From TrEMBL:
Designated name of the protein: HD domain-containing protein
Keyword annotations: Nucleotide-binding
Keyword presence, Membrane: no
UniProt GO MF annotations: nucleotide binding
Organism phylogeny: Bacteria, Bacillati, Bacillota, Clostridia, Eubacteriales
Keyword Nucleotide-binding: yes
Limits of the HD domain: 59-175
UniProt cross-references to Gene3D superfamilies, sorted A to Z: cca-adding enzyme, domain 2
Pfam families for the chain: HD (PF01966)
Database matches in SUPFAM superfamilies: HD-domain/PDEase-like (SSF109604)
PANTHER family xrefs: CC-ADDING TRNA NUCLEOTIDYLTRANSFERASE (PTHR47545:SF2), MULTIFUNCTIONAL CCA PROTEIN (PTHR47545)
Amino acid sequence: MVKMFEEFQKHLMEDKNPSLYFDEIINNKDIYTLYPYTLLRNLIETPQSPVHHPEGNVWKHTMLVIDNAAKRKEFSENPIAFMWAALLHDLGKAPTTKVKKGKITSYDHDKVGANLSQEFLCALTNDEALINQVTALVRWHMQTLFVTKNLPFGNVKEMAADISIKEIALLSECDRLGRGGMNDTKICEEKENIKSFIKKCESQLLSSK
């Protein structure tokens, strides 16, 4: 377990495109039949809405996200936690994804994913600071959507007490850009959404003082 943790972390931190490593081993190592690695393997069988995720299943999305994160990790306050969060951010989609009347949903995958990320890392390391940081990033990674869309699931105050807003914004940027069909126009739109998220969070926190 320790060896694989170190191997994963090495590729997350050193590779320009970590997806090349993870795509290569996901089908070629027996370790993915063992817990907690099965949590990652399950993402291959987890579908996503083709409207929002034309790239396909959650695994494909995750690979795009970690490659985007690798390009931006230097801007993170904690690059190691940031890269682990990018890899684990959608673990909650496997158990929460439902298909009803042709619509694919994964409600509460952020909350479920936080618990699964904690379990995953606890099985591999005793680094409590890392585990807590990653868990918080996964727990709050959907707040960008909730806050910018003024949805009732937004909770800026609690999020800000748990994790840096700018860290969530950075992870969210990688998450939102980690999709198929991203052109220059869509990329600009997503970056504007991230800026809007930060401004709204700062405004809400200021008004609550």
